[in-house]
Amino acid sequence: MLHTVNKSSFERNSLQSCINTIDDTSVILLIEDGVISAANNANSSMLTDLASQGRVYALKGDVEARGISSKVANNIKLVDYAGFVDLVVEHGTAVSWV
User: Fold this and answer.
1) For residue range 16-66, what is the model confidence (pLDDT) as tens digits?
2) Where do the structural domains in the chain lie, given as residue ranges?
3) Which sign does the torsion angle of CA 57, 17, 46, 38 carry?
4) Are 87 and 57 in contact (CB under 8 A)?
5) What's domain 2-97's architecture?
6) What is the DSSP letter of 76?
7) Would residue 67 be called left, alpha or beta, if left means φ above 0 and alpha means ψ between -120 and 50 degrees?
């Protein structure tokens, strides 16, 4: 299952709720302000384990729009819109965390 998170972890607890809920086959795609959680900061630690498993993605255009390209944590994969579509197709079901 694909889980999209569009809010910063500084603004809402959507990312933490998502992480607490997902199963072992799910992946997370950070979009919009959710990409702020991809930057190396105090909140990025909650993504570290999932990212090391290759299960965390961030939308490249949103990362670039927020000027954090050089700050994205290791192992978080950047995808473009075609990559977003590929993730939806691959995982079949998408859940949005707002």
Assistant:
1) 999 999 999 999 999 999 999 998 865 567 788 899 999 999 999 999 999
2) 2-97
3) positive
4) yes
5) 3-Layer(aba) Sandwich (3.40)
6) P
7) left
